[in-house]
Amino acid sequence: MSLSQGRHYLAIPGPSVIPDRVLQAMHQAAPNIYEGALHEMVEGMIPDLNRVARSSGEVAIYIANGHGTWEAALTNILSRGDRVLALSTGRFAIFWAGMAERLGVEVDLIDFGKSAPVDLDQVEAKLKADSNRSYKAILVVQTDTASSVRNDLAALGECIRSSGHPALYLVDSMASLACEPFEMDSWGVDLMVAGSQKGLMTPPGLGFMFFNQRVLEARKKADLVTPYWDLRPRIHPEVFYEYFFGTAPTHHLFGLREALTMLLEEEGLEAAWDRHAKLSRAVWAAFDAWGRGSSIRLNITDPKNRSHSVTAVSMDAPHATELRRWTEKKSGVTLGIGLGMAEPSDPAYHGFFRVAHMGHVNAHMTLGMLAVIDAGLKALNIPHGEGAIEAASRVVSEA
């Protein structure tokens, strides 16, 4: 028998749960794209997006996913033959670096593995060794969605500044924006990319690139940029369509407007950060309990290096895949695959999964998801420690 009927819970690290209010805001007739209310709404969203990023600079909106904003970032600041330093803590900085290589950029990659953050000593040594200052940019991901590593961007920014290196500081915050602190200006970030489908609680399809004056100066020299990705007309358009280099993504914008209102005007950005932090601790407490005397382990050992939006988990294969299939088919909860931890052809692939706790998520959703995992472990006779739900509930009940 299946108990999966009713509202399904998508607990994967993006697309995240879309609030009913966002869906309802999108459920309307197409607007006039040439003048009027749509123009006013978009112009009003630009400062709100900068509030989310804690940026006093510019933001360009692209009809794109995260890979599209990666390309926008690279092509607006680099030329063929330029050199960048990429810092990988899982999977996605490697993809970003690979895109740079395909564009004709030379990449120097430091791979810190799949369960550790950026090592600042190694970065400092690399920057000091670059005596001719050949690196044009440094690429890093705040939260790697695959590994669930969270990097200390403030400390990395200080490391770059103290080295005196002029490279632009580029950050991917796709899986973390609005889920945990991000301070673009105070951390010295020059360019950050994000998307609509995670902490911003809107369907996939919008990409955002936040940047400062240093990026605008680099844009003057970049020879990789193409008409679509060019940031210049998007930030100070002479006519409205230039915001999007064509027809506006009208209904995504309606949804985003509602999501920003919920986030900034109703809950408050700092409160959203605190909510994610507490729900994360509840998830970790449950897995710590399940892990006692079993193979179940959080991928990131030190809590200060764990993401507040996604948690990567391992266990003996093939139990992770069995558990994911049980929770989805029997209980209506979809968990994330273990992305990048092993190749799908490798039997070890079936020993990894991920749990998302990002965006429009609250205590009963998180506790319910954990309870379903607990039931699945029991139903499948997967070895696990007891007391997980009690441990998570204690975290939630803390003042």
Description:
With 399 residues, the protein is α/β, with parallel strands linked by helices. The protein has helices at residues 20-26, 37-53, 66-77, 92-102, 120-129, 153-163, 213-219, 232-235, 250-267, 269-291, 319-331, 363-379, 388-397; strands at 9-11, 58-63, 83-88, 106-111, 135-141, 168-172, 191-195, 206-211, 297-298, 310-314, 333-337, 352-356. The chain has two domains: 9-16 and 268-397, Aspartate Aminotransferase, domain 1 (Alpha-Beta Complex); 31-265, Type I PLP-dependent aspartate aminotransferase-like (Major domain) (Aspartate Aminotransferase, domain 2, 3-Layer(aba) Sandwich), CATH 3.40.640. The strands form two sheets. A seven-stranded mixed β-sheet has the order 2-8-7-6-5-3-4, with helices on both faces. Helix 10 (269-291) runs parallel beside helix 12, helix 10 (269-291) runs antiparallel to helix 13 and helix 12 packs antiparallel against helix 13 (388-397). It is globular.
Write the layout of secondary structure elements.
Layout: E1 9-11, H1 20-26, H2 37-53, E2 58-63, H3 66-77, E3 83-88, H4 92-102, E4 106-111, H5 120-129, E5 135-141, H6 153-163, E6 168-172, E7 191-195, E8 206-211, H7 213-219, H8 232-235, H9 250-267, H10 269-291, E9 297-298, E10 310-314, H11 319-331, E11 333-337, E12 352-356, H12 363-379, H13 388-397
Parallel strand pairs: 1-11, 3-4, 3-5, 5-6, 6-7
Antiparallel strand pairs: 2-8, 7-8, 9-10, 10-12, 11-12
Helix pairs in contact: 1-9, 2-9, 5-6, 10-12, 10-13, 11-12, 12-13
